[in-house]
Design a protein that fits this description.
Strand 2 and strand 3 form a beta hairpin. By secondary structure, the protein is mainly beta. Helices cover 9% and strands 41% of the residues. It binds flavin-adenine dinucleotide (FAD).
């Protein structure tokens, strides 16, 4: 097996008996073509490879979902070993959000380290995920769980949803 580092998959297309994939290295403007029986597009939730496929042109985009996430230390969580979902409309100013949190061990954790908490807020178009999450942590009904919490990592995601063919 060859591993090509610093190489982007640009496009893929069906050819007789398999797939042709176009690759480009960081130091070159020209494409390299690779033919194979099967190609797995694993370039993420908004895959550019999939977007460029002929069959993807038939699917219909229907919405975008935004996610903001913090890793927190020092959460006073009465249910430390649980995946917790906060349901109902009262948790964010605009009322539309999906909030959940769960314990995680970082890859750098040593045996005996307390888990950190990953908390996520997902929102539909027009509602800011970060603002919803900040409001929930500072002013929400459970703000007392987070009064001594420290943000050690932030992340975000934009998830685009399409119909299946
Ligand atoms: C805070 C947060 C919350 C999320 N919540 C959810 C959720 O609730 N549900 C959900 O389904 N998803 C969620 N996601 C999206 C999540 O990222 C994906 O579902 C999941 O990580 C996809 O895994 P993957 O292996 O397909 O892609 P990734 O883990 O994104 O890996 C893709 C890899 O491909 C590489 N790459 C990208 N483009 C190219 C290219 N052209 N050529 C070569 N390599 C390339 C990238 O560098 C990366 O290493 C969330 C993401 C974040 C950040």
């Amino acid at each position: 097996m060859d591993v090509l580092t610093e190489t982007a998959g640009i496009r893929a297309e069906n050819v007789d008996g398999g797939v042709k994939v176009f690759l480009r290295g960081t130091s070159s403007r020209s494409f390299k073509e690779v033919k194979c029986k099967v190609a797995v597009a694993a370039d993420g939730v908004n895959s550019q490879i999939v977007k460029g496929l002929e069959m993807a042109k038939q699917r219909k985009f229907f919405t975008t979902f935004h996610v903001a996430s913090y890793f927190l230390e020092g959460v006073e969580n009465p249910y430390p070993n649980s995946w917790i979902t906060f349901v109902g409309k009262g948790h964010t100013p605009q009322g539309k959000a999906q909030i959940y949190m769960l314990p995680k061990h970082l890859p750098t954790a040593k045996p005996g380290d307390e888990p950190i908490v990953d908390i996520m807020c997902g929102t539909p178009i027009g509602v800011t995920a970060k603002a919803g999450l900040d409001h929930f942590l500072r002013k929400g009904k459970f703000a007392h769980w987070f009064r001594n919490a420290k943000v050690i990592h932030t992340a975000s995601a934009v998830l685009n949803f399409y119909t299946c063919n």
